[in-house]
Write a structure and sequence with these properties.
- It contains 3 helices and 2 strands; from the N terminus they run H-H-H-E-E.
- It has about 100 residues and is mainly alpha-helical.
- Strands 1-2 form a two-stranded antiparallel sheet.
- A hairpin with a 2-residue loop joins strand 1 and strand 2.
């Protein structure tokens, strides 16, 4: 595929990028390199190979969900500037 100035302008419009002339030339060269690399990859024979989304087998390693902290409300409330009963007391933020 030939990368033209019109294609670079179109891609720039789609991505809302305002490219200068030297940036357009660099983008054109970069896109050409990417497409050439993809053509090289298409030369590989991949028939019979399994499809995969990642080169390594990934398995979720779940751990047991155990509770490690206890209800220590008094200790937590001792750090609060003000408390009312077993709750934090905060400034009123919404007027009715």
């Amino acid at each position: 595929m030939q990368i033209t100035d019109e294609l670079i302008d179109y891609i720039g419009d789609l991505s809302r990028l305002h490219l200068k002339d030297e940036e357009k030339e660099k983008a054109k060269a970069d896109l050409s390199d990417i497409l050439n690399y993809m053509e090289k990859l298409n030369e590989l024979d991949t028939k019979g190979l399994p499809e995969m989304s990642h080169p390594f087998e990934t398995v979720n390693r779940f751990r047991e969900d155990t509770v490690t902290n206890v209800d220590d409300r008094e200790n937590l409330l001792s750090n609060a500037p003000e408390s009312k009963g077993s709750y934090y007391k905060v400034f009123k933020t919404v007027e009715q």
